[in-house]
Amino acid sequence: MTEMRTLKVALLGCGNVGAQVARILIEDADALAARTGARLQLSGIAVRNVNTRRDVELPQELFTTDADTLVKDADLVIELMGGIEPARTLIVSALRNGACVVTGNKALLAQDGPTLYEEADKAGVQLSYEAAVAGAIPILRPIRDSLAGDRITRVLGIVNGTTNFILDQMDTTGAQFADALAEAQRLGYAEADPTADVEGHDAAAKAAILASLSFHTRFALGNVHCEGITSVSAADIAAAKDAGFVIKLLAIAEKLPAAGAETGGTEGVSVRVHPTLLPREHPLAAVHGAFNAVFIEAENAGELMFYGRGAGGTPTASAVLGDLVSAARRIVLGGPGRTETTTGHVPALGIESATTSYYIGLDVADQPGVLARIAQLFAEHGVSIEIMRQTIHTDSASNVESAELRIVTHRASEAALAATVEAVKGLDVINSVTSVLRVEGV
Ligand code: NAP
After folding, report:
1. Which of 15, 195, 235, 389 is the most buried (most CB within 10 A)?
2. Superfamily of domain 354-439
3. What is the mean pLDDT of each run of 10 residues along the chain (442 residues)?
4. Which fold has domain 140-310?
5. DSSP label at 83?
6. Which contacts of 371-374 are long-range, i.e. CB under 8 A and separated by 24 or more positions?
7. Residues 367-390, buried b or exposed e (16+ Cβ, 10 A)?
8. What sign does the CA torsion over 62, 59, 311, 326 have?
9. What is the pLDDT of residues 262-317, one digit of tens each?
10. What would you measure as the largest C-alpha separation in the chain, in angstroms?
């Protein structure tokens, strides 16, 4: 019997995820070898401080602060330090040395992905990053491999657990945003500085990755229109609930057909992150707490949904190990690293070209003919109304009646909707526009 080959694995970082990866590599060494066809030998773990107490008992001699030397002597490098530098330099160095690299670093991929992909292409090695989007959920490999024979038309993702937890709290308890955020921080779902999550930046980085793989074109963070959830109020949530919707922060990537002036007459991809109303019966509406899910529409497969834990040391380590075994199998089999296809060449469209349905809340005077005037104004701007509901309120002090009007439109362009809302604001019967929110899944 021929002896099994040994592949050296360098681990950069031993925090929440890295410590669990190291544990699994050691505990499950035999099973991983059987699945890979080679022994995966953890050759060292680079950290900032070798004396820090770790969540997991690991052999002390594995720890080093000399990441450069560790990387130079590895067949496979796992980068789980996070941040831009020194992670970028170390990944480039590993790729140039011919090592396959596995990373979960969405911030680095969003900022400098193309440079890293090119380095991997040039070296003919694999750069894998399943853990960078939706933690434990296998989503990038299914898009890249399982759906390689299909055409993806749309991806809708709940890819940030912090914001999903906050919006879910607001929906179930009626809490305001600030209180739900404080609860998320108390439970460890949100960081002390929650900006990257609540402003949508983390979801935008993941949207760029999802769009790039789905549409075989490299999209950068700058191509993603991004709105966070800080302006979503308890009143918005209550109104949405009343109308049969739930509000989720969605990462959306969709192919839009060649249309008129908005898309310049060519087809393109709209990549965006924003709070979105979903009908309560939509599969994504059932994603609660800090869970993640990605809903895909493909021409032949139809609708697919991937659901699971979007973060956490052990779940994320599962995704890292999957990438590691896949890269190691390739080394065992020989041949160049598998890279993404970038032959799509579809342009990124600006938010003004996106088409979606809208929910519009209006506080209007309770007078005869108001509904007809508003409906006519929508029609004049080419925005067709799907649902219009009116509720009458009486101010107990003044006894003055006003009406709350809730409108859901058919799909319309952002530009047409913005013009409609501006025109509506100019009507003398409008007291205020209480909310304008995008709707998907109707
Ligand atoms: P973490 O707990 O902060 O751990 C970071 C580790 O990297 C620590 O062990 C740290 O060393 C080491 N490190 C940082 N800078 C270093 C440097 N300059 N030189 C040497 N070592 C350095 O991070 P994490 O939560 O495990 O996340 C790791 C990566 O996975 C990030 O890119 C993150 O975005 C991604 N990710 C995380 C999750 C999750 O649930 N946590 C989910 C998906 C993706 P010391 O211990 O000595 O300080």
Report:
1. 15
2. ACT domain (3.30.70.260)
3. 88 97 98 97 98 95 98 97 97 97 94 91 95 97 96 98 98 97 96 96 96 94 96 93 95 84 71 97 97 98 98 97 96 83 88 91 90 94 93 81 90 93 94 93 87
4. Dihydrodipicolinate Reductase; domain 2 (3.30.360)
5. S
6. 371/405, 373/427, 373/429, 374/405, 374/407, 374/424, 374/427, 374/429
7. eeebbeebeeebeebebeeeebee
8. positive
9. 545 678 999 999 999 999 999 999 999 999 999 999 999 999 999 999 999 999 99
10. 92
Show Cβ contacts of residue 264 under 8 Å, excluding neighbours closer than 6 positions: none
The predicted structure's pLDDT at residue 383: 96
Within 10 angstroms of residue 248's Cβ, the number of other Cβ atoms is 25
| One CATH from 3.40.50.720, 3.30.1490.20, 3.40.50.2300, 3.30.420.40 for 5-135+314-333 | 3.40.50.720
Domain ranges of the chain: 5-135+314-333, 140-310, 354-439
User: How many whole angstroms from 331 Cα to the centroid of ligand 1?
Assistant: 26
pLDDT at 172: 97
3-state helix, strand, coil in the chain (%, to 5): 40, 30, 35
How do 5-12 and 76-79 pair as beta strands?
parallel
- Residue whose CB lies within 8 A of the most ligand 1 atoms, among 16, 193, 201, 291, for a mutation test: 16
Q: Based on the residue annotation, tell me whether 425 is a catalytic residue of this protein.
A: no
Amino acid 401: pLDDT: 79
pLDDT of residue 265: 65
Residue with tokens 């089999």: 333
Ligand 1 binding pocket includes 80 (Cβ within 6 Å) = yes
Best mutation site among 48, 52, 165 for ligand 1 pocket (most ligand atoms within 8 Å of CB): 48
